[in-house]
């Protein structure tokens, strides 16, 4: 029985589709324009280039209109049906029981029009959402969410006033700014800035480049150091604004077996995560946050690609470690555990130190040929310090049906996972490790199509028997 007629999205979808297409064509257009100018094209070649550009834009507009016209959806009694396709017609049937998540987003253009986009993921989704409705009124998107959730089985068209559950957690401006300052993303922004600068250097005249290089050489290392510090400060400021834009208006609400996470100043994103889809809880203590006893809590979620990068969702952008256990007890009680980790054996410390020195081995010949390369040894104390931190903080714990593992590269990460979510446990032992009675430990959870693996190196050799007993015990109880 038909429960609703086929509907189209808001006509604003035409502009959204056009913007997406033009964004994908932006780089080819710029490259073609630069090539055209460098080639010294005459009037007729410029006219042809302009005509081609206008033609492509007109084709993009026409395609966007047809895409909007042919993209329709209908809420049937047993499935959500989506018809799409301009040249190749497609019809999708999405059954509510197969839907894993429904996430709403609202970029700046959509928010100006009071619209949202809705992403729907099913059990078969992988790197992308099953389908996306790009321009809907919020009430229409909510009606689809309710239908897929099964709360409007009797009459999905009937508007119901639902009380919005109170927010369990909201991040205020002070905590948001503190989280932004200690996010540790400055390195990513710094590398991104370097990549952009290197791309634009090719367009700077050679005489100007030679003048800049000459002044740097004359001024010496002091000026180079000052320029580097200024670049880091600019990168830090950019990373702060980037973090605030991403996690502004952060809010977590609880509703039955589902978490609703909303965030974003410019692009407002709403994640609805069913608790049983959470495969692991990852407590991250960045190098800037650890001294102040702050941490970030992320959830590894099984599902498609409409979550954050890596198929994870940030549950708490910034939380005090003293408040962490109580917060998890309210939101995810089964992951609220008191940590009593088994430390790594003392004989493993030497291996952590030796491994940290490996990057310096290929540089040894350069130390004799180019003495200036000895400057690389400036970072040696920092390298050794992090090696000792990795040894000190490494550990694990088996508690009933819960497995806890802690390791670090730069940030300290504590992973809490349930037996049902663990896809694979691998213990490996090299000949040298066998001599020292040590093993490597890998735990894989199903959070992405390729899964997510967490590694801890140089555990006590007796851990092999401990994990065997735990796995056999859980197999017998299952």
Can you tell me about this structure?
- This protein is α+β, with helices and mostly antiparallel strands.
- The strands form four sheets. A seven-stranded antiparallel β-sheet has the order 7-6-5-11-10-9-8. Strands 14-13-12-18-17-16-15 form a seven-stranded antiparallel β-sheet.
- The chain is built from 14 helices and 21 strands.
- The protein folds into four domains: 7-149, Pleckstrin-homology domain (PH domain)/Phosphotyrosine-binding domain (PTB) (PH-domain like); 175-247; 251-344 and 394-477, no CATH class; 346-389, no CATH class.
- The radius of gyration is 27 Å and the shape is globular.
- Helix 1 (12-38) packs antiparallel against helix 2, helix 5 runs antiparallel to helix 8 (221-247) and helix 10 packs antiparallel against helix 12 (380-393).
**Estimated share of beta-strand residues:** 25-35%
Give the domain tally. 4
Low-confidence stretches: 151-162
- The overall pLDDT, averaged over residues, is 80
Major sheet characteristics: 7 strands, antiparallel
Please give the alpha-carbon distance between the first and last residues: 41 Å
How many β strands by DSSP?
A: 21
Shape: globular
Radius of gyration (CA) equals: 27 Å
Put simply, the count of helices is: 14
Structural class: alpha+beta
Helix content: 40-55%
**Order of strands in the sheet with most strands:** 7-6-5-11-10-9-8
In short:
The protein is α+β, with helices and mostly antiparallel strands and 478 residues long. The chain has four domains: 143 residues, Pleckstrin-homology domain (PH domain)/Phosphotyrosine-binding domain (PTB) (PH-domain like); 73 residues; 178 residues, no CATH class; 44 residues, no CATH class. 42% of the residues lie in helices and 27% in strands.
